[in-house]
Amino acid sequence: MDLRQGIGLRRLGTTADEFQQDLLSSLYYRRGTTVESASPRDAYEALVLTVRDRLADRRARTAAAHFASNPRWVYYLSAEYLLGAQLEQNLLYSGTGEVAAEAVKVLGRSLEEIEDLDVEPGLGNGGLGRLAACLVDSMATRDIPAVGYGIRYDFGIFRQSLEGGAQAERPDDWAFQGNPWEFPAPDDRQVVHFYGHTEPVAGSPIRKRWVPGEIVLGEPSHMLVPGYGTETVNIVRLWRARGSEASFDLSRFSAGQYAEAVQEAVRAENISKVLYPDDSTELGRELRLKQQYFLCSCSLRDIIRRFRIRNQNWDDFAEKTVIQLNDTHPTIAIPELMRLLVDEYELDWDKAWSITRRTFAYTCHTLLPEALETWPVHLFERLLPRHLEIIYLINMLFLREVEDRFPGDTDRIRRMSIIGEEGERRVRMAHLAVVGTEAVNGVAELHSKLLRETVLQDFADLWPAKFQNVTNGVSPRRFVKLANPRLSDLITEGIGDDGWLTDLDKLAGLERLAGDASFAERWRAVKRANKIDLAAGDPDALTDVMIKRFHEYKRQQLKLLHVITMYHRIRANPTGDWVPRVVLFAGKAAPAYHAAKSIIRLINAVGATIAADPVVAPYLKVVFAENYNVTLAERIIPAADLSEQISLAGKEASGTGNMKLALNGALTIGTLDGANIEIRARVGEDNFFLFGLDAFEAAEMRIRGYHPREFYDRDAELKTALDSIMSGAFGGVGHEVAESLLGWDEYLTLVDYRSYLESQDEVEAAWRDRDRWTRMSILNTAHSGFFSADRTVSDYAARIWRVAPVTVPRED
Ligand code: CR6
Questions:
Q1: TM segments (predicted)?
Q2: Distances (CA, A) of 760 to 443, 536, 689, 705, 764
Q3: Which of 40, 281, 379, 446 has the fewest CB atoms within 10 Å distance of its CB?
Q4: Three-state DSSP state, 642
Q5: How far is 669 from 245, CA to CA, in rounded Å?
Q6: Are 734 and 542 in contact (CB under 8 A)?
Q7: Ligand 1 pocket: which of 81, 135, 365 to mutate (most atoms within 8 A of CB)
Q8: Residue 321 annotated among the catalytic residues of the structure
Q9: Confidence band (pLDDT; 50, 70, 90) for 277?
Q10: How far apart are CA 266 and CA 259, in angstroms?
């Protein structure tokens, strides 16, 4: 399929010469500059455009193939995308890395220098956002027709720095110099309504007219999402909020009221300003809900627009469309689709509801009650009056269904209602998401089981078949091939080809090499070279990493108690045979999460004390790498020996950092939580350091009543560690951390402390036996193939989406 035929466009070349020609064209015609006067930014943008053109070519062929086959589409709705830096990835995916490296010489710069200018889009917070990016990558790789929808935040994530050891936040203006990867599509702009009131429609008991109080425009742009080893290029479409033309008040401007003249436009634009605005104020909560609705309204209208290009009949909508809700943030899409179908397209309620229910699927990503969203009814009433009416009707019909199944069980009805009546009346978004979808899944076996047995138990009783598990996965391209080229080459050599990049189970081919001394030697050499690149400390020391968001349930404080205990042990016995360790932390704490920020502060205080102690410093080093993001993860992961996955069992839904680290040959020390369980089952008990309570024991312990002081009194080393914090041994920092551990210890840190330390002793024993450690490391990689996001996507495709791939023909 040559789309250029008939319009006289030339085919893009594949040789270094041709690439160079195109690079120079980009520089002259699109940057408007010359080789002599090109700035580093010009060189960067010219290269991006040249690479982007090659993907745009494939994108055009993909769109044509999709149009021709009118397939069933997956639409992924997500508040976050952490796409990572694009240039290196797109060079790999377009197969132009080598020619580009050659071609850029004409600009007098190396590819590496240019790549340094490629900043990652800051459009997400943590695992959920990175998962979204891995899934869209794998959907394209598996030729699944898909669009990811999101918001183009100006400030999707803050930049973290340390000031006096404490986290400081600054805005991260990731697109300050523009984002050359993005294609604006102003013609697909959407109009979004807020506030106002509803009015009855004559002749219809159900339909309503919504008279809005505010109108905002959603302007889309898209980023290309190429598949690896295939022709498919999908897109992520991101919405940015703008005021309408009418939002600029010219008469006020003329009267010198400059701020007032633009206030409405500013208010509109605030919708896509930041991700998860602080919701501790009423205004903040309203802005969050506004954002969620903005994403859903724009995306649904776009989805319907796309549907109607090739289809006329609403009966086909649910056949042609599946909309995956990434957590509850886009749940408002359910009543929005009802509103569009009933009020705007005039379908009757039952038909609309049948379509809606069959269209959506919901992935839950948490078990923490505080993370399950609820919105005050009064907020809905003011911001989205029509949606509240629709939710009430959905709820009424749903509760009737419950009553039919469980007659007289009023307690159950109260528990299951979409409207929570305890205290302030609130809309329970997770309930709405379960009621309005065809499938609900958790993100790891344990998580899905706990969802069915605890948080969503009533729903699982009612609709057992609705509940599924799809274990998360990660992109082997980004997190092995791009992040760890040395290991990738060694793997390819060991297995014989690079087919593992799209069929990660092939890593099992490494198993037979686990006992091969010369292979093991090279495996170690790769790790060592990666550690030298990272430059966090002695490359021969055990590199022990804990990289993830800061949250008390993840228990960075437990890792810290281990560090403090090691510090005391070494001081007490300076001539002991200690295993040298570099303990590396990286991660951000939510700006308003004070307890997490105190832990960061204490880590740095302990690190400084150790660094200044000549007895301990040769054996123990604490490093805090600032501003953790995808790019930094790609540097740390290849250098890790030990992966800390030490959340309290039952709290981490899945984790995906655990998978990335295991794939790169780090050994895991972890609890029976989230995907750790599945990692351990695959890599083998002998190759995993297990400790701590399981989820059942942890829940029991909480119920029985837990007194952290008892653990403190019983364990001399634990006592010493906590006492040293309390007595100010670490620059007087950390009182509140110790106090919360001794007072309440929400996440049972002190309970698991002893077991964790014992497990760390086993880590050291294994580390001392170099050959054993290397063998374990190789086996971790060999048996982690299951954790490819390609497998995750295949699971979704087969069990939830029921979509078939569409092959995009190669250019011939
Ligand atoms: N914080 C889970 O906590 C999981 C990811 C992706 C999380 C984490 O265990 O791996 O989602 N949950 O499924 C939410 O964001 C609500 C996360 O990233």
A1: none
A2: 28, 21, 8, 28, 6
A3: 281
A4: strand
A5: 57
A6: no
A7: 365
A8: no
A9: confident
A10: 9
Q: Which CA distances in Å does 642 have to 504, 555, 637, 766? A: 22, 16, 10, 11
Q: What are phi and psi of 95, to 5 degrees?
A: 65, 30
Identify residue 761 by its one-letter amino acid code. Answer: D
Rounded mean pLDDT, 505-513: 98
**128 close to ligand 1 (CB < 6 Angstrom):** yes
Chosen CATH of 71-84+121-369+432-471 out of 3.55.10.10, 3.40.50.300, 3.40.50.970, 3.40.50.2000: 3.40.50.2000
Which ligand 1 atom sits nearest the alpha carbon of residue 80? 15
Point out the catalytic residue in the list 559, 601, 660, 775: 660
Give the residues across from 147 on adjacent strands: 75, 235
**Averaged pLDDT score across all residues of the chain:** 96
3-state secondary structure of 326: strand
* Given the residues 554, 559, 588, 682, the one annotated as active site: 554
- Write the pLDDT tens digit of every residue in 375-405: 999 999 999 999 999 999 999 999 999 999 9
The rounded Å distance from CA 387 to ligand 1 centre is: 28
What's the rounded Cα separation, in Å, for the pair 99 and 439?
Answer: 46
pLDDT at 1: 65
- Check pocket membership of 366 for ligand 1, CB cut-off 6 A: yes
Q: Which of 778, 186, 80, 162 is nearest to 495 (CA)?
A: 778
> What is the per-residue pLDDT across 656-666, written as a single tens digit (0 to 9) for each?
999 999 999 99
472 within ligand 1 shell (Cβ under 6 A): yes
> Ligand 1 centroid vs 656 CA: distance in angstroms?
8
The CA distance from 592 to 484, in Å, is 35
Report, as an integer, the average pLDDT of 330-339. Answer: 98
C-alpha–C-alpha distance, residues 239 and 216, integer Å:
12
Pocket flag, ligand 1, residue 650 (CB < 6 Å): no
720-755 confidence digits (pLDDT tens): 999 999 999 999 999 999 999 999 999 999 999 999
**Domain boundaries for CATH 3.40.50.2000 within the chain:** 71-84+121-369+432-471, 481-692+749-787
Tokens of 246: 């009418």
Query: How far away, in angstroms, is 471 Cα from ligand 1 center?
Result: 12
Which of these, 121, 118, 140, 125, lies nearest to 83 by C-alpha position?
121
What CATH class does 481-692+749-787 carry?
A: alpha beta
> pTM higher than 0.95, yes or no?
yes
660 is catalytic: yes
Whether 208 sits among the annotated catalytic residues: the reply is no
User: How far is it, in rounded angstroms, from Cα 653 to Cα 365?
Assistant: 6
Q: Which residues contact 405 (CB under 8 A, 6 or more apart)?
A: 462
- Give me the phi and psi of 652, to 5 degrees please: -90, 115
Task: Quote the ligand 1 centre to 472 CA distance (angstroms).
Answer: 10
**Predicted pLDDT of residue 369:** 80
Helices vs strands, H then E, count in the chain? 33, 23
Does 548 participate in catalysis according to the annotation?
yes
Out of 128, 471, 555, mutate this one to test ligand 1's pocket (max ligand atoms within 8 Å of CB): namely 128
Indicate whether this complex's ipTM tops 0.95: yes
Q: Is the CB of 655 under 6 A from ligand 1?
A: yes
470, 479, 654, 679: residue to mutate for ligand 1 pocket, most atoms within 8 A of CB: 654
Classify the C-alpha dihedral 32-36-39-41 as positive or negative.
positive
Of the candidates 380, 463, 376, which has an alpha carbon nearest to the alpha carbon of residue 416? 463
CA of 652 to the centre of ligand 1 (A): 7
